[in-house]
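We treat protein structure as text, and this decision shapes the records that our systems exchange. Because each token names a local backbone shape, the row as a whole describes the fold. An entry from our holdings is shown next, in its original layout:
>
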Amino acid sequence: MEKIIYLDHAATTKTDDRVLKEMLPYLSYYYGNSSSLYSIGKINREAVEKARNQVATAINCSSDEIYFTSCGSESDNLAIKGIAKANQRYGKHIIVSQIEHPAVLETCKALEREGFEISYVPVLKTGIINLDSLQKLIRKDTILISVMTANNEVGTIQPIKEIGRIARKNRIIFHTDSVQAIGNMKIDVKGMNIDSLSMSGHKFYGPKGVGVLYVRKGVNFFRMQDGGHQEKEKRAGTENVSGIVGIGKAIEIANNDLENYNKKLLILRNYYTQAVVKNFKNIHINGSLENRLPGNMNISFLGNKGAHLVEKLDKYGICVSSGSACSAGLPMPSSVLMSIYHDVRIAESSLRVTFGKENTIQDVEKLIQALIQIVR
């Protein structure tokens, strides 16, 4: 079988060898339960706390503001439901953007069934939210704003610092889904006025099955599951020690190599974009080219179905996407692109390419040649 060209790093990434090496002892030799009082349990507890410090250092917060979860979706659920229910005596109004991940949008729908009211901030043609519209939606009973740092489909980066400033000025708690952003851009929760943040290890060369929720000291939130007393009694369940060790190492590596990593991704993205513009006429580049993750490019090949392009490229050994991996297989056009452009042709013909550290210019050239054969 030919080497697979993997160009869907927004969906998941390969676990870094250095991360795997760090994890292995906690899958074999150090197998104790981190809640146990004897020495093998204490070793695991120390490993968990080391990882907590690594994550906290990476986003500039205190280690006791970090909570480990199973994934980004659980982190989003715990943040939004936990904060909403803990603060509903002050109001039951929540503001989110139209282009949030389903982990946020579906959570908000669940809260609506419990009597909360959700307002949706529209986005401009650039894929960036309208700050004026956000401010107009704020009410006296608004308790929470949740806007993702970077979009999972078009890679557009939102003005998080400004949103946080608006929230802080109005005494509203601000949560951001940073699942796509961590590992691709520098996040400083203090400097960016962030009260709560979600992330997932497998998006930045860490393992699957482990996520993080940051909640600033002083922000009250309720636990969503009952059981043990782990994670400062906010998230019950035996800790995934090897996964936690992995996410700690992965975020440390990502932050240390961020500048070089972004430079490489930007070269690949620009090469791909220029080649598409040169070889194809009936295209539409989706989202802002300025405020965008360096490794993300979403282009609609008008007149083609994005899902069909994905299937045909797979036969060439090339892995790309037509949207969010969490929504793959659904027959509807991208809700993100529909919210931005209100055009079914653009939404259903999109192809998302997201580059990673193992990709090369040769990979891009093979992708372009395959697209020429398929589209023409």
